[in-house]
């Protein structure tokens, strides 16, 4: 099995305060890892380090056997996609958002692919021309999710992407993420407190006071 992430003795501190404390763990290709812990324990900080949004204060993150610092950030983010808690869409329409991954790759927008992805999150074809300003919070989160997988990434890093959604929308997004993992082989690391989402995982990591404990439960 291919090791996707190998985190070795990583710490992160701000103004002398350690948010993450000498943590080490591995993530294998195709795993579905949920991350839980109290507010302020360092969960989001960990994801941001893995996404190369911030750099560890000490220790090292290896991605596919190479130090994360050795990767070109633009190339890395084509393989490792980050989903924020509050979906951020831009432009006027859903189509503009789903076309963006093609634009940065100098490729033509694949409308058929966009429609397939809308279906995966229980949205009709008509949403492609919807105005961003007319979307609900749950609809925006679904669009943000499928924008992340227009070009299927190696890894999905998800930071409480369903925390503010109703139960039906939460379920739809959770099912889509599970299918991306099981059918497409995408490695998932998902910060969540939801027990149903945690049940779908192969492993759960708990972060308490900046330190980790990993539980294999599937």
UniProtKB/TrEMBL annotation:
CDD domains: ABC_cobalt_CbiO_domain1 (cd03225). GO terms for cellular component: plasma membrane. Its EC number is 3.6.3.-. InterPro entries: AAA+_ATPase (IPR003593), ABC_transporter-like_ATP-bd (IPR003439), ABC_transporter-like_CS (IPR017871), ABC_transpr_CbiO/EcfA_su (IPR015856), P-loop_NTPase (IPR027417). GO terms for molecular function: ATP binding; ATP hydrolysis activity; transmembrane transporter activity. SMART domains: AAA. It is a peripheral membrane protein. Residues 5-218 form the ABC transporter domain. It comes from the Bacteria. Keywords: ATP-binding, Cell inner membrane, Cell membrane, Hydrolase, Membrane, Nucleotide-binding, Phosphate transport, Translocase, Transport. It is found in: Cell membrane. PROSITE patterns: ABC_TRANSPORTER_1 (PS00211), ABC_TRANSPORTER_2 (PS50893). SUPFAM superfamilies: P-loop containing nucleoside triphosphate hydrolases. One of its GO terms (biological process) is phosphate ion transport. This is Putative iron export ATP-binding protein FetA. It comes from Jeotgalibaca dankookensis.
